[in-house]
Structure formats: structure tokens, C-alpha cells
Amino acid sequence: MDLSFLESPLFTCAQFVLAMGLFSWGQARRDHYAARVCAVVALCVSMTVAEVCLSNADKGSELSLQPLWLQFGLFAAIALAWMPLIRFCHDVSWQRSAFLAVAGYTTQNLADSTGGLWAVIQSQIGGGGPAFAPSGQAISPMAMSLDSFVASVVCTIVVYALCYVLFARNLSQDWHLKPRDWHVAGLFAIMLAFSIVFDLTLKQAMSLDMTFVQRLVFSTTKIVFGGVLLYVEFGVFLGNRMIGEMEAMQQVLDERERQYNLSRTNIDAINNKMHDLRHGVLEQLMGSNAQVDASTLKDIARHLNVYNSQVRTGNVALDTVISEKSLLCEQEGITFTCIADGSALDFMAPAQIYSLMGSLLDDAIASSLRIAEARKRSISLVIDERAGMATIHAEHRFNKAEGHPDGAGRTIAAMAERQGGSYATSTDDGTFYASVLLPIPEG
């Protein structure tokens, strides 16, 4: 039984499966992922075979002979059908599945267009059999010659590799399209519809009696359009992701501002209360007949002074966060030393200072607590102004056996970049070094 007529449609089916997998591979997977993928592949193959057998039995039912609106509907249905198939294999939203389906469909179309361009060139140089009949009518055999098959495979590999490097590898599981952003999914649908209409229009034009140059221009136009479509789609994706990151950063700043105001109020209240308590206790002890030696009085005073040892750097926000973290270090048995010129950070808003320094010191404290021996826990902080730059340098010990945790590094880097600065880290023999450089605005 001759099944050669299945070769080209099955190859196209394989292109679609690989294109969708190219973009959805890194997404969160559902249980029994391998079985689900096999079921999708089996469904695609069976549907392809059924459609080809129907067309082979009834020549008048071939897709190329159908009205344009029917061809458009079929291609749109193929693209949209991938949305539930992607969701069947991956735990993603409908918006994200629409994004992945459009990207996969466009990539397959781009690979197909690249193969078509190569066929046009081959038809001119006579190196692989004619891609077009002498009259200019496009030949669309159901079977592919060996040369055409190899060329199509090579074109597909090259295009898919480029699409992965330029687009697909930028995707991860943590990006998201908000459920309320249906306009983004609508934009993807418009892009898909425009792609299908443009592709069908070019195919109709290519079936006319054209010169080599005209076919070359049309084939190149299809490739350029596919590349632009992917670029625009991922431009929307990156823009949406940046907006999401900015909103998340703003939420962090708002929360830090709330914490700053609360900490400022609490520290002032504690200091005032402990100041009164210290004097009251000392007056009662000195005025009573109780025999209290000098060492006991000094020990009481030392413990009370912990709450009155607010750091004064010349910047209220910096004073607040350092005082708060120094009390926490005292409680956890971490040696904390600080040399800070608070005026170096006067150009920053209080909430920004509290957020940046809070994240930096919280990271250091969390890492220090992983060290079993309390005497080895230490954190040092130096803040200064040099050559028009505010410099923040922090270092702390960490557990070498466990390594240094990732912590809030990305958050700190984002905060520094938002101020036009930079964040750098390094490690050396169990010591973690972190440096933040921030340009001080002139004037």
C-alpha cells in the first residue's frame, strides 16, 4: 500500500508539534506529562491522516480548492485548537496558552516560508527539481522528494534554533499575563488572524504566473512578516512583564514605607520609655537601703542602654533601619558594626532607603544565622560618598558548607538599577561581600 501521499502533511504536523513544544517546554507541567504529550501527538497524527485520506478520496475537497473564508477558518481552528492542547499538558492560563499557541503557529509558518524560499531558489538554479510548474502554477504534491524533504528539515532546524535563542529561551514559569488583561489575549488573536490572512493572500498571489524575482520577493516578504510578528508578540510580552515587575516593586516599596513608619514610631516610643525606666530604676536603687554592688548596677544599665542606643548617621530613615536591625543582631548574637554617613543617601526617599538597606541587612542576618557558632556571626556595614557616588559596602560571614543563599539579591539589584546604580557581590573563604553604587544627582 502506497502511503507516500502522507509524507508532506505528516511533516507539517511534526513542525506544529515541535513548534508548540519549543515555547511551552519550560512551562509548569501537569501530572503524567509524558502520557499527555503522547496523547496529543497521537491525536494530531490521527487527525492529519484522516484529513489527507479524505482529500485523497475526493480531489474536490482539497483545501487549496476551497474558498478563502473556509481556508481561513480551518487555519484559525488549527491555531486555536492548540490552546486547550497546551493546557492539557501544562498548568498555564488561557491567556498564556494563547500567547504560546500564536508563537508556535507563527514559528511553524516561518519555517514553512523559509523552506518555500529555498524551493523558489532551487527552481531557478535547477538544483532540486522545480518548485513551480512552467506556467507558474505552484505544485503542491502530497509527497515530498528526498531533496525537498532534506531542505525542509534543515530550514526547520535553523528557524527553530533561531526562534529559541531569540525568543523561546526568554520564557520561564514565573512570567504571567494577568487574568483581567483580556486585551492582551485579544491582541494575540488579531495578530493570528492577520498572519493567516496575509499568508493566504501571498499563497494565492504565488499561484499566479510570476517571474522568479516576483516569487522571490513574495517569499521573502512572508519570512520578514513572520519575524516581525514574533518580535511584536514578544515585545508585548516583555512590556507586560516589565509592568508586572514595576508593580511588584512598587508594592514592596509601599510595604517597606509602612514598615518604616511603624518602626520609626516603635523605636522612638521604646527609647523614650527605656530612658525613663533607666532613670527610675537607678533612682530607686540608689535611694533604697538595698545593698547593690556596682557591677550589678552597670549590668542593669547596659541592658537598658541597648534600647537607647539608636544609631545617628544624619539620616532619619537610615537611623531607623540600622537601629532596628542592630537590635535584631543583638538579640540573635550577631556582632554588628556600622560606619555610615547618612548624608550620602539624602537624595533617596525614606521608603527607598528603608527598603534597600532593609533588604541588604535582612539578607546578611538570615545568612549569618545559618552559622552554628554564634561567635563567628558578624556583619559590617560602611556607607560613604566618593566621587559623586553613594557607596554601600556590606560584608558578613556565611556557612561555607551550605553556601550562600540567593536571598534578595535580585530585589536589591532592581532597587539599585532603579536609581541608576549597580549591585555587585563576591565571596571569599566564607565571607560574602556586597557593594551598591548609586549616583548622587547634581544639585
In a few lines, what is going on in this structure?
This protein has 443 residues and is an alpha+beta fold. 63% of the residues lie in helices and 9% in strands.
Main attributes?
2 domains, 11 helices, alpha+beta, 443 residues, elongated
Strand content: 5-15%
Mean pLDDT: 76
Q: Which overall shape is indicated by the principal axes computed on the Cα atoms?
A: elongated
| Residues in helix, % | 55-70%
N-to-C CA distance: 85 Å
- The parts where pLDDT drops under 50 for at least 5 residues are 1-6, 127-143
> Strand order of the main beta sheet, please?
1-2-3-5-4
Query: Given the structure, what is the number of helices?
Result: 11
Oligomer status = single chain
- What's the β-strand tally? 5
Gyration radius, in Å = 34 Å
Write down the domain tally.
2
Description of the molecule:
- The chain is an alpha+beta fold and 443 residues long.
- The protein folds into two domains: 4-244, no CATH class; 313-439, Heat Shock Protein 90.
- Helices cover 63% and strands 9% of the residues.
- The protein has helices at 7-24, 33-57, 68-89, 94-125, 146-166, 182-206, 212-287, 294-305, 316-332, 350-368, 409-418; strands at residues 335-340, 378-386, 389-397, 422-428, 431-439.
- Strands 1-2-3-5-4 form a five-stranded mixed beta sheet.
- Strand 2 (378-386) and strand 3 form a beta hairpin.
- The model is unreliable at 1-6 and 127-143 (pLDDT under 50).
